[in-house]
Hints:
Chain A is of the alpha/beta class.
Amino acid sequence: MKAGSGSDRDLILRVCNLGMNFGGLRALDDVNLNVKEMEIVALIGPNGAGKTTFFNCIAGIYEPTDGDILIPGHAGGRMQRINGLKPNQVTERGLARTFQNIRLFQNMTVLENVMIGRHCRTKAGIAGAVFKGKRTRAEERLIVDTSYNILAEMGLADHVNEFAKNLSYGAQRRLEIARAMGTEPLLLLLDEPAAGMNPQETAELVALIRNIRTSQGISILLIEHDMKLVMSLSERIYVIDYGRKIAEGTPEEIKDNPVVIKAYLGEELFDA
Amino acid sequence: MFKLSEIKKSIYVSLWFVFLTFPLMVIHINPIEKLVEWRWRNMIMVGVGSFVLSFVWRYLIGRKELGNKRAFEGNAIKTSFRSLVAEKKKLFLPVMIVTGIFIIIFPHVVSLYQTNIMISALIYVMLGLGLNIVVGLAGLLDLGYVAFYAVGAYSYALLNYHFGFTFWMVLPIGALLGALFGIILGFPVLRLRGDYLAIVTLGFGEIIRIILENWSEFSFGPSGISNIPRPSLFGVELSIHGAAIYMYYIVVMLCLLTIFVVRRLQDSRIGRAWIALREDEIACQAMGIDKAKMKLTAFALGATWAGMGGVVFAAKTTFVNPASFTIWESIIILCIVVLGGMGSVIGVILGALVLILLPEYLRAFSEYRMLVFGALLVVMMVFRPGGIVSDVRKTYKFERKVE
Lengths: 272, 403
């Protein structure tokens, strides 16, 4: 990893002055955020602060009203703007996401779920499907093998042939990450990966996310409410409230930041 | 006590049925003698019949629920199904050979009438398999599928009428035109799904029919186009019987082609993407699948078979008019897919054969034919909601261990 935080060189994601309006409601206002190579960054904030809106803007579900979302261009060239691209185009450019409320393909097997993730990295077309030539068969075999390897790494090897809907909750969360990994991302966007998990599952998840980062060399941006997870996992934290960034820094800095404490606990609430 | 409540329930059921069927079964108006007959005997029969049947019905429902519970608690049904599949593998070759021989000798041992209804049933197999791509795999509820069927049929009729194109020339053209219309319909409905999509496609189907009915200069209006030639066999003119047999073999070959292509598509990268699209559109897109492209592919590839089916239909009946392409046809094709089992090739084939052949063979019941047919559909959906062949999608299995 290169040192130096000022340059664009080691940035995987750069969000400048992002704003999003829903009619008259300003859901995001002037948010800046950077993610560096192989960094784990957390985005936190009270309920309704605009975290998921922020994610949806990056992932292409919403088109931001103003601001820029930049990711590295080809071969380390200038950064390219990805505002307004469709979700699938964003994924093709190396940003993969998971969902807050699990959105697996329930009636497909665990393996097939990850195979869908491989879709944008493979290219057999209609003719390939019908004639099933050598190249298509090789590609299919490769898809299955790669998918299996990803599942093995995520500790889901025992469940490959089960239907996604039959997995336990924690395993479904992990499968969502595995599916996102199938798209070979540069940056993994995790929307509340630990929601609904018990402490043991959360601990396993922390280890897993760290492991992904080191073995795959990718960056991770996560939204999370579980402060223990956020503090132990992330290297930098951004805090937003009412669509505005109110703080950023290392976990230690954030923990003692009075603005953050106020946003989370409020002032009047103590008296009430 | 328990028994008593059941009897009470059955009495209510039979009373309800007596009430419902009263005007139809009991009152009989004789317009010539200006008399009203009261057929009380029929009322008693309906009452007793529905009383008994309600017990049978309850027993069957109970058994079905027991089955569901068993499947939920353990793998009782699953294992039995698995052993069936394992047996099937052993039986596969002999069954295929027997079916193959049956298919080949069929038109030679049965009457012309039987051959003809089998031809239409096989056309519906093609249509069902085509619609299965759209509805069963990609999960796009298309109620205007008959439009593509009409496109195919009219493309043969018109190209033949104006330019003298032969059946074999038009067959691929019809398929292409079907696909083209599939894409044309696909574009405006890309954003829609579920009920909205169904309504728009329904409208599209009707638009095509109404155009054909009213644009007389183009399509000759409701009188249609007649004297469409049957496919020729190397220029040899065949007798009516011979032509039917030839037609039968053509349809069988086209069905085999459809089955082959649809199965290949289903087990491919594209088929997987369709299934994912059906399961969750947003997640599908987030995984890098181009939603618009996949939907258009599904519409186009589904409509291809309808276009081909239309060409075959025009050649078989030697006459086309808009009355053959009503919404009812779309509904029947959709029924074939749903009744057969969404997404299952074998299911759709069985569904088409049952739905098209059954009304023919039920002619023995004369005016009660459609009543019996409807009752069978209801019973079918109650006891096998997933279709005749449900939930047997071939899933990708990882068998080889990575060492």
